Amino acid sequence: MKFYIAARFDKKVEVNKLYELLKNKGHEITCDWTLHKTIKPYDENQDLAKNYSIEDILGVKDSDVFILLGDKAGTGMYVELGAAIFSNIILNRPKIYIIGEYIARSMFFYHPFVNRRKNVEEVLNELEIN
Questions:
Q1: What pTM value is reported for the model?
Q2: Over 90: is that where the pLDDT of 98 sits?
Q3: How buried is residue 113: exposed, middle or buried, by Cβ count under 10 Å (0-12/13-18/19+)?
């Protein structure tokens, strides 16, 4: 399966651990945004911002499974969630999960295509990835 993991930029270490777990089980990461440079302020890094935004949205579209690490803050990851929901409407994929402590933060977490789980282990069990 192809995975896209969305999270705040400061969660790169946690996301990389998930990447390794998934790759070790034979899965693919559609876009490794953890390799992106810090580009804030965006208006001073417009070309990189444009390129990264294209890469990330295509990574969401090309995934079979989208996992968002819920958080009390963040911006871009919620745009990616919207892209995942729309992709599911149009392409019937990816399967969408919100995980963590903050799984009730947005009305969009209750969209019929979104599954809320406590942790990644619940997602992997549900997908039968052991």
A1: 0.96
A2: yes
A3: middle
